[in-house]
């Protein structure tokens, strides 16, 4: 069995209801062993709708490509369609970590390449996996979140 950390987010109404209802329905589909609180976050890119984010730990015998295929099926079942990067979405499911360490294949990189710069991923992970180590940097989720907060507090340069 392998343990995965999956980031979950929504900022659009879907067949289950508003973003919080969509995230809760996705959690029910995933059957996680641990779930972080649902947290609001600002959108990245052109979307103007605020997100609801969480993270979940999933215990499964699936290899990373098989789990990714399952996550993509869930996204399609929820009504997610290919479209503009960083646009509004009914549900977004991303593999952040895998207990097997790092993994790379076409279309999949674990750990998620951008998670270190995303508070909306790190903050929920702090609740369920603060000591999980990034296999590439060796830093814990707690350390990565602390570093990101410090960067976010830096004054802007003129």
Automatic annotation (TrEMBL):
Pfam families: HPPK. One of its GO terms (molecular function) is 2-amino-4-hydroxy-6-hydroxymethyldihydropteridine diphosphokinase activity. GO terms for biological process: folic acid biosynthetic process; tetrahydrofolate biosynthetic process. Pathway: Cofactor biosynthesis; tetrahydrofolate biosynthesis; 2-amino-4-hydroxy-6-hydroxymethyl-7,8-dihydropteridine diphosphate from 7,8-dihydroneopterin triphosphate: step 4/4. Residues 85-96 form the 7,8-dihydro-6-hydroxymethylpterin-pyrophosphokinase domain. Its EC number is 2.7.6.3. The keyword Kinase applies. It comes from the Bacteria. InterPro entries: Hppk (IPR000550), Hppk_sf (IPR035907). Keywords: ATP-binding, Folate biosynthesis, Kinase, Nucleotide-binding, Transferase. NCBIfam families: folK (TIGR01498). PANTHER family: 2-AMINO-4-HYDROXY-6-HYDROXYMETHYLDIHYDROPTERIDINE PYROPHOSPHOKINASE. Belongs to the HPPK family. Catalyzes the transfer of pyrophosphate from adenosine triphosphate (ATP) to 6-hydroxymethyl-7,8-dihydropterin, an enzymatic step in folate biosynthesis pathway. This is 2-amino-4-hydroxy-6-hydroxymethyldihydropteridine pyrophosphokinase. It comes from Sphingomonas aracearum. The lineage of its organism: Bacteria, Pseudomonadati, Pseudomonadota, Alphaproteobacteria, Sphingomonadales. The gene is folK.
